[in-house]
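Re: the 177-residue chain
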Amino acid sequence: MRRFLDRLYIVSGGIGAFFVALLAALMVAQSILREFGVRTGAVNDVVAWCCAAASFFAMAHAFKHGDFVRVTLLLEKLPAAKRRVAEVMCLGIATVAVGYLAFWANKFTYDSFMFDEKAQGLLAIPIWIPQASFAIGSLLLLVAVVDELVIVLQGGKPSYVAAVEERHAKGDFSSDV
């Protein structure tokens, strides 16, 4: 199961990276095409959807690898036993919050599908298609948060803490800037 989940996070990060690359390619192409007088208004819609897809698909990967924004000032100052309790509480709250997000993101996407809602921009496609990245990405983040909660409840060190410690051991403090 561990290998499957780790691969899932790598794949989700790869999909997020693909959308970042697509975003860059679309923006460059749009800039060039404008110079030749080609109308590219619908590209703005696709760029917005790529931004959302890049963000939501990358969240689980970023969270598991210690690249997610976390406020650790208090946790780092606590003794090990209290830190573990605080980490469990934080991950429990995160599980509820991300579960809430995932539920409503998926309900919202499902409703758009059921009502055959169309995008309101220049590119009138079924809106559930770009919304699916929000729905899937939020589920992936929920899996990652629950995964970390289970690791900590079993007495293990959170993956995101281990990843940051590993980078620091190599002298890489770039993520702390």
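Residues 57 and 137 are 5 Å apart (CA to CA).
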